[in-house]
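User: I'm putting together notes for a lab meeting next week and I want to include a structural view of one of the chains we've been expressing. I don't have a solved structure, so I'd like a prediction I can at least talk through. The sequence is below, exactly as it appears in our construct file.
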Amino acid sequence: MSEEWVAVATFSQPVEAHLALTKLESEGVLCIVSDEYVVSVNWLLSGAVGGVKVMVPASEAEFARDLLRPQPHLVQVADETHARDSDDEDLVCPQCRSVDAYFHRFHRRVAGLAWLAFGFIVPWLSQRWVCKQCDYQWKERGTTIDE
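Assistant: Thanks for the context. Below is the predicted structure for the 147-residue chain, given as structure tokens.
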């Protein structure tokens, strides 16, 4: 007699279920996707059928649930001495020496107005680095944006 299959995860879209299926198959778990065609034909039925289900044999259910459980992201915090000695000066804020900076490509209002006026975003409008710690802004090495 065959083993019972149980649902270990449900999703509203078939593509999400197939991502989970790929994760499980990469770990060697035998699994299938159920009700994907019902939801694909009429997505309003997703709630009625209980969503798209990823099913595994009952003996592998606990292992499969552990694999699909979200894992906390590991964050590496650089110490201040590493930030001061870094060779990559673009990633270090010139004002507070923080390494917590990001590249800001477009100002939202300017990009929206450019999109409405020209039909595309002008790429050179507002490219700059912004420090998350002190909100200091700079364009490149040795240049700053005056506010």
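A couple of points you could mention at the meeting. The CA atoms of residues 19 and 63 lie 17 Å apart. Strands lie at 5-11, 32-34, 52-57, 101-104, 128-131, 137-138.

User: Perfect, that's what I needed.
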